[in-house]
Amino acid sequence: MERYTGAFEEAVDGARQQERHYQLLSALQSLVKELPSSFQQRLSYTMLSDLALALLDGTVFEIVQGLLEIQHLTEKSLYNQRLRLQNEHRVLRQALRQKHQEAQQACRPHNLPVLQAAQQRELEAVEYRIREEQRAMDQKIVLELDRKVADQQSTLEKAGVAGFYVTTNPQELTLQMNLLELIRKLQQRGCQVQPAKLVEDTARPKLCEAQRNKGTSVWPACGLCDSSVVSATTRAQQQPSPCSSVAYRGTSRYLPPPRFVTEAPPTGTPSGAPSWSCRLSHTTFPPG
């Protein structure tokens, strides 16, 4: 009897996984229709099916959320570094301006043209230094974010998410952004699964005496078992799914998930530096 019970439960598990895969695939196909036609052509049925398989147990949703939180911390740190640099430059300009004004007030009129020429050269040197420091900071930000992109690509590739591998190809990056956008929208819609144990405890059909004595009418139905695999699967689907606010708990801002973007590097990035930056979210850095 235990052998038959195990076989039945395995069949139910397989059917439930298949139904879950079908639901995720249908949801992905529906979301793909919202993308531009040029991107729809690249998201083939096979890729969407593989993506749905990777999303079955909910692990990928957690991975994406973890990457998002790490990225928020990284962007916040880089943002603060650039703000500090800008504050230093503002203080430097103010101090230089004050120094020049005091020097001009103490200068004799016939020496004023010479003093002003020297001050102009000093001002140009300081402005050049400021521009170079801002350019170096912008390059550092771009390179750091690009390294973060490579880490994200590698992590998702190891997790078995279709379409992800380490690349700098702009077309492939756009494809990966679209895939992440699909995952994010599924997460917002609550298309996640609960931990396996909860599903087993609440939705796994069990054999009762009514099934063990199939063909008799003396045993009342227990309400937990059902010979219909579809019914068991339906009950599993009716379990509450985490809402977006729960799925995004742990973040420090409690804001809706930001959109995935691809942006050009800051103006003045030296040649040879990466010319793209794809991230799970977007932070607008203050202008220099």
UniProtKB/TrEMBL annotation:
Polar residues bias locations: 269-288
Region (Disordered): 257-288
Domain of life: Eukaryota
Record's signal peptide: none
Family affiliation: Belongs to the gonadal family.
Name of the protein: Protein DGCR6
Source organism phylogeny: Eukaryota, Metazoa, Chordata, Craniata, Vertebrata
